[in-house]
Amino acid sequence: MTIETKTFNAGPDEITALFAGKIDLAYIGPSPAVNGYVKSKGDDVRIIAGAVSGGAELIVREGAGIASPADFANKKVASPQLGSTQDVALRTWLKANGLAAKEQGGNVTVIPTQNADTLTAMQKGDIDAAWVPEPWGTRLINEAGGKLFLDERTLWPDGQFPTTVVIARTDFLKKHGDVVLNFLRGHVETTQWIGANPEEAKKLVNDGLQQLTGKALSQKTIDGAWQRISVTNDPLAAAVKTSANNAAELGFLSEKPNLDKLFALDLVNQALAEKNLPPVKAE
């Protein structure tokens, strides 16, 4: 098959494209994947594999006067997009520390901002902090003088939480399971190769970024970002469900969702079995 690729700033826009039939498979954060599943009443979205664990941080601007969670009161904090995985994580953390965004009755200004604009905003002093995925966390540190306030891994059991999962449009999955299986075979092979060849993988990733954006990352940035992520075939279903419950408590979902049909892992487990690798679970 001929593969056409599309690039999005954050997951909610991907879900909109998936609903419109403009994409069939996607790498996406778990929160918008869940939101799409719920919005379609469980019909249109399936998580078919994991991709990345870790790699999201809360970075504070030097000079913002933030040394403790309480210091976030009356501050401006960026997240990639309303309802995105990092946005839910930020708002959940604020709530756990007795704070809230202004629209949820608190005094923290949460500003949904495209990642590239977040870098510029912190450089200018227009924001005080940002909860962002890699490589933007490392870029805020290296290029905007930001300080690591919180690595999200510290909030999860065994330091594992999904930053990226693989989803399929349900109708495409049903009609073209053979294509999805071949895609997942390639996904599994790539995941294993990245784990075994990190230095070469970093070079290929940077070459890809150069082609997509016209600018590669500095070696310092890609080395720093790489330390905070791990590639995986496991969607870390338990963490996805925890994040979904968090989104419901924040009001992004009307109720805690039933995710019984969200995970469709038979094909990735077939691809894993062919490589004598252990299966992943939907629980």
Summarize the SSE layout with pairings.
Layout: H1 11-19, E1 25-28, H2 30-39, E2 45-54, E3 56-61, E4 76-79, H3 85-96, E5 109-112, H4 115-124, E6 129-133, H5 136-144, E7 146-151, E8 162-169, H6 170-175, H7 177-196, H8 198-213, H9 219-226, E9 229-231, H10 237-249, H11 266-274
Parallel strand pairs: 4-5, 4-6
Antiparallel strand pairs: 1-8, 2-8, 2-9, 3-6, 3-7
Description:
By secondary structure, the chain is an alpha+beta fold. It folds into two domains: 11-53 and 160-274, D-Maltodextrin-Binding Protein, domain 2 (3-Layer(aba) Sandwich), CATH 3.40.190.10; 56-158, D-Maltodextrin-Binding Protein, domain 2 (3-Layer(aba) Sandwich), CATH 3.40.190.10. Helix content is 43%, strand content 18%. The protein is built from eleven helices and nine strands. The protein has helices at 11-19, 30-39, 85-96, 115-124, 136-144, 170-175, 177-196, 198-213, 219-226, 237-249, 266-274, and strands spanning 25-28, 45-54, 56-61, 76-79, 109-112, 129-133, 146-151, 162-169, 229-231. A five-stranded mixed β-sheet has the order 5-4-6-3-7. Strands 1-8-2-9 form a four-stranded antiparallel β-sheet. α3 links the parallel β4 (76-79) and β5 (109-112). α7 packs across α11 (266-274).
